[in-house]
Specification:
This protein is mostly beta strands. The chain has helices at residues 193-198, 294-300, 302-305, 309-312, and strands spanning 7-8, 45-50, 57-61, 69-73, 92-93, 104-112, 122-123, 125-131, 155-158, 165-166, 170-183, 202-212, 226-235, 252-256, 259-267, 273-279, 287-291, 322-334, 339-352. The protein has one domain (7-352): Jelly Rolls. It is globular and about 50 Å long. 47% of the residues are buried. Strand 15 (259-267) and strand 16 (273-279) form a beta hairpin. The chain has four helices and 19 strands.
């Protein structure tokens, strides 16, 4: 589902996820009419809302002083794209893989007509409004133990020129963000867990990373051998993959940028090895600024540190495996009423180690 106020992406190329499923939306209820504020001068600002279209659409928004961007959704307005030859792009993808008749999925984007922003790495503003009915994941379970199925994972995805990159060559993966999740059609000023609970919201906010020994497959999310999720927030009834796996369900614990995370490990239905870091703060981490690459090291060394590793039944990545996919967004499961996920700030800076053989 996705985002709203200004978005910052450092030294990055962001591109459409290959591995994610893009379902065709059916019988969608748009939360407002699709609209455009037509520019009247070179520095004008115009806003578009994408809801209920059955075809895919790519809109390229160029930052002429730096990074270029792409807005991508599976429902669209008929707006001419520009900057198609740009070599750096920032896509926002609806990633709906489980459609529902009684549902809403709308993306709103604000852009500067003159293609200049507050910095060379600033993206257009955007946010996602959604609503999905509760779809049981385990219908045979008692009602009080039933978990929901995810319907979509809208996210902004990174395609830096350094990707794919081996973990051995990954110097740092700096992540900066600020987001809110609230009830209704507009971005909330802050996130209220109590309000989300009152509308039975089931959703997460996560960084999604895929790895594989093959550099091409590493960029094709659904085909990669390994997935690492960092859940900065988790609201509702869903459990991470690996929850309850082994006698000690938490495989590891660590701290990143002053925030505590617990690690769960297991395999999903595609038999991918999934490593999920869950923030310990029940309110969620709505602001973050730090390097998340040390989380890879914990996973790489899990065999020697996790007391219950043999019970996890997972294969671990190695330093020679490639990181090929990085995406930040929200897993959307269900809610009673509309939910808006807005990201006023996002920055992803992938920093490879310096090549010792490079000319000075």
């Amino acid at each position: 589902m996705s985002f709203f106020i200004g978005m910052i992406v450092n030294a990055i190329l962001l591109s459409i996820p290959i591995g994610a499923s893009l379902g065709t939306m059916i019988a969608i209820k748009p939360f407002r009419n699709e609209r455009v504020k037509p520019p009247v001068e070179q520095n004008a600002i115009f806003e578009t809302t994408y809801c209920d279209s059955s075809h895919e659409f790519h809109q390229f928004a160029q930052n002429k002083n730096g990074v270029n961007y792409t807005i991508h959704t599976s429902r669209s307005l008929n707006i001419p794209p520009f900057g198609r030859t740009a070599n750096k792009r920032f896509p926002v993808n609806s990633n709906e893989f489980l459609t529902a008749i009684e549902s809403t999925l709308c993306l709103t984007v604000t852009q500067n007509q003159n293609n200049t922003y507050t910095s060379n790495d600033t993206a257009p503003d955007f946010f996602i409004t959604w609503e999905y009915p509760f779809t049981p994941a385990n219908v045979s379970s008692p009602p009080n133990e039933t978990k929901p199925l995810a319907h979509a994972f809208p996210q902004a995805t990174l395609q830096d020129t350094a990707l794919p990159i081996t973990l051995l060559d990954l110097g740092a993966l700096e992540l900066v963000f600020s987001w809110t999740m609230g009830i209704g059609d507009e971005a909330a000023p802050s996130t209220s867990v109590r309000r989300l609970e009152s509308q039975a919201v089931n959703a997460t906010v996560a960084l999604d990373l895929f790895l594989d020994a093959d550099p091409v497959i590493a960029g094709q999310g659904g085909k990669a051998a390994f997935e690492m999720l960092i859940l900065f927030a988790s609201y509702g009834l869903q459990d991470p993959i690996g929850f309850g796996n082994g006698s000690n369900t938490i495989a590891a614990h660590t701290t990143a940028a002053g925030n505590d995370f617990d690690l769960y490990a297991g395999k999903n239905d595609n038999l991918q090895n999934v490593f999920t870091w869950v923030a310990s703060d029940p309110n969620g981490i709505t602001d973050f600024n730090g390097d998340i690459s040390p989380l890879f090291n914990v996973v790489l060394n899990l065999a020697s540190t996790a007391k219950n590793f043999a019970e996890l039944d997972v294969t671990l990545p190695i330093f020679g495996d490639y990181l090929g996919y990085v995406g930040f967004g929200s897993q959307t499961y269900s809610s009673i009423g509309h939910v808006t996920f807005a990201v006023p700030k996002l920055g992803i800076d992938l920093q490879p180690f310096a090549n010792p053989n490079a000319p000075v």
